[in-house]
Amino acid sequence: MGNLAQLSAIKTRLELPAGDTQDDSILTNFIKLVSGAFEDHCNRKFDRQAGVTYEFDAAKTEIVPERYPIEAISAWDLKSDETSGWVAQTITDYLIRKGCVVTLPSSLGVAAQQ
Predict the structure, then answer these.
(1) Nearest to 4 by CA among 42, 25, 32
(2) Cα separation of 88 and 29, whole Å?
(3) Is the pLDDT confidence value at 113 over 80?
(4) Integer distance in angstroms from the first to the last C-alpha of the chain?
(5) Is 74 exposed, middle or buried (0-12, 13-18, 19+ CB in 10 A)?
(6) Residue 99 CB partners (closer than 8 Å, separation 6+)
(7) Residue ranges per structural domain of the chain
(8) Can you tell me the distance from the alpha carbon of 63 to that of 13, in angstroms, rounded to the nearest whole number?
(9) What tens digit of pLDDT does each residue of 53-76 get?
(10) Global pTM?
(11) Is residue 86 within 8 Å of residue 77, measured between CB atoms?
(12) Element of type H or E holding 78
């Protein structure tokens, strides 16, 4: 979970002196609480992270990950069972729309696969 505000910005908004650290832990916990609630309400993650893995139903052709914008896709893997594990897929055709939806020309597999 990423924080949607910085402690310094909150303290400025509340007109608290920057050097006064008495309430920093309470304010930091409140920032985390509100950020988490906002992410839950919006059903997505707001902090930017590189190398994030997203699992989805292999029958889908429209994929909406919980974290965006999507900057690049580095690999596609398909999982049918625990014994075989993840198997790399060669996919060259896909479209990232508006930085948040990945469209595939056809599904990678069936609903029982990831």
Answers:
(1) 32
(2) 41
(3) yes
(4) 24
(5) exposed
(6) 68, 69, 70, 71
(7) 7-42, 50-114
(8) 38
(9) 888 999 999 999 888 788 889 899
(10) 0.63
(11) yes
(12) strand 76-79
